[in-house]
């Protein structure tokens, strides 16, 4: 266990994780934002998986109503969203690391055809991709659309602190600095291996999960109390599943919306196979006087007591101060960095490469 921690720590010192190189990432972010003129009333972010899920999680936490995501191929939803916004006052951001993502290219082509007579494509479109000869880069360059470089050595699910994540976030959130501060705190705590009583150590979390996996518990139920946190659960789901699900290692992350799932899945959680471990992610409504909020928290507290009484493992309980912009910004930066560090630790413990996703390519081979 100690060896895994020392490997990750040394890799951080040697700057072998570009997605955690805070000085470089901060410099790149500031350089781009200083030269970016892209302000609109609404934004539609077009990207699949890790390229958009990080900013989508933060938009959800901050309860932003003017941010929309095309991370699907649902033509009816695309039309419904376009009918909701004023295209002239909407910025469209296309994200694909490779520039060959079929869903993004399809949506790019569709939106150009739909909007070319309505808006100035050069003004309203922005592309984040590698600078290469792939279709997205070539199409954007030919059309005169501004292109922001996607770091070639940072994959989508690890891109939250790169321009891939932070450029969209900066358009709807004005306290990115606090996100960086939370990120720095996570790095400092990990390097010093010192945490306050209410902090979560990614090292200890990784060790707990590794022992549970070895003991046959390979399903992680993330109980989410507060819809603002649902997309955060989806970001965590991708990070852990895609990074660790290799060589018969890993666990299945399940995002469970509470209290709805109490009425469909709780029976299985409590009395089904003992192959699960649990996390609690809850909006901090402790200061709220709203009866609905109070009832939700009462359900959360009752669930914690129930899981304890059934001797079902709870590995983490996290409360999110969504009403306090600075505090939640710090918390966001800390949480995302800690989650990535935890994945790196688990990958070392499980002897898997967290960066590849070779199995995904098998499906792509059948695409026509």
Model description:
By secondary structure, the chain is of the alpha/beta class. Helix content is 51%, strand content 15%. The protein has a five-stranded parallel sheet with strand order 2-1-3-4-5, sandwiched between helices. Helix 3 links the parallel strand 1 and strand 2 (67-70). The radius of gyration is 21 Å and the shape is globular.
Classify the beta-strand content into a percent band. Answer: 5-15%
Low-confidence segments: none
Proportion of helical residues: 40-55%
The total of helices stands at 15
Tell the overall outline. globular
Radius of gyration based on Cα positions? 21 Å
Task: Note the run of SSEs as H and E.
Answer: HHEHEHEHHEHEHHHEHEHEHEHH
Helical/strand content category: alpha/beta
Side-by-side strand order of the widest sheet: 2-1-3-4-5
- What is the count of β-strands? 9
Can you summarize this structure?
Strand 6 (219-225), helix 11 (230-244) and strand 7 form a beta-alpha-beta unit. The protein has helices at 2-13, 22-34, 50-61, 75-84, 102-115, 121-124, 135-143, 163-172, 176-192, 202-214, 230-244, 266-271, 291-309, 325-350, 358-364; strands at 42-46, 67-70, 90-96, 125-129, 146-149, 219-225, 252-258, 276-283, 314-320.
List the helices and strands and how they pair.
Elements: H1 2-13, H2 22-34, E1 42-46, H3 50-61, E2 67-70, H4 75-84, E3 90-96, H5 102-115, H6 121-124, E4 125-129, H7 135-143, E5 146-149, H8 163-172, H9 176-192, H10 202-214, E6 219-225, H11 230-244, E7 252-258, H12 266-271, E8 276-283, H13 291-309, E9 314-320, H14 325-350, H15 358-364
């Amino acid at each position: 266990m100690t060896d895994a921690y020392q490997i990750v720590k040394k890799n951080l010192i040697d700057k072998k994780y570009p997605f955690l190189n805070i000085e470089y990432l901060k410099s790149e972010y500031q350089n781009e934002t200083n030269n970016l003129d892209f302000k609109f009333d609404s934004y539609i972010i077009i990207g699949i998986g890790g390229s958009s899920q990080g900013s989508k999680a933060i938009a959800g936490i901050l309860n932003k109503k003017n941010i929309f995501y095309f991370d699907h191929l649902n033509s009816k939803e695309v039309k419904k969203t376009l009918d909701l916004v004023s295209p002239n006052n909407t910025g469209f951001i296309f994200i694909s690391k490779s520039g060959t993502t079929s869903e993004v290219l399809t949506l790019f082509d569709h939106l150009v055809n739909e909007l070319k007579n309505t808006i100035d494509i050069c003004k309203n479109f922005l592309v984040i991709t590698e600078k290469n000869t792939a279709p997205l880069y070539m199409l954007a360059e030919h059309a005169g659309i501004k292109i922001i470089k996607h770091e070639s050595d940072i994959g989508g699910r690890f891109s939250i602190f790169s321009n891939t994540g932070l450029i969209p976030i900066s358009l709807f959130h004005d306290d990115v600095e606090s996100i960086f501060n939370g990120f720095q705190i996570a790095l400092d705590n990990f390097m010093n291996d010192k945490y306050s009583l209410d902090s979560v150590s990614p090292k200890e979390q990784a060790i707990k999960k590794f022992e549970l996996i070895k003991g046959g518990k390979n399903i992680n139920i993330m109980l989410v109390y507060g819809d603002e946190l649902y997309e955060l659960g989806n970001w965590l789901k991708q990070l852990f599943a895609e990074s660790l699900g290799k060589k018969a290692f890993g666990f299945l992350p399940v995002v469970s919306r509470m209290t709805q799932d109490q009425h469909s899945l709780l029976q299985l959680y409590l009395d089904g196979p003992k192959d699960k471990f649990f996390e609690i992610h809850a909006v901090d409504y402790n200061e709220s006087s709203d009866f609905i909020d109070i009832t939700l928290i009462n359900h959360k507290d009752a669930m914690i007591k129930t899981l304890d009484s059934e001797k079902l493992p709870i590995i983490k309980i996290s409360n999110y101060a969504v009403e306090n912009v600075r505090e939640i910004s710090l918390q966001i930066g800390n949480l995302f960095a800690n989650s990535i560090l935890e994945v790196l630790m688990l990958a070392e413990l499980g002897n898997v490469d967290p960066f590849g996703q070779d199995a995904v390519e098998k499906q792509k081979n059948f695409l026509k």
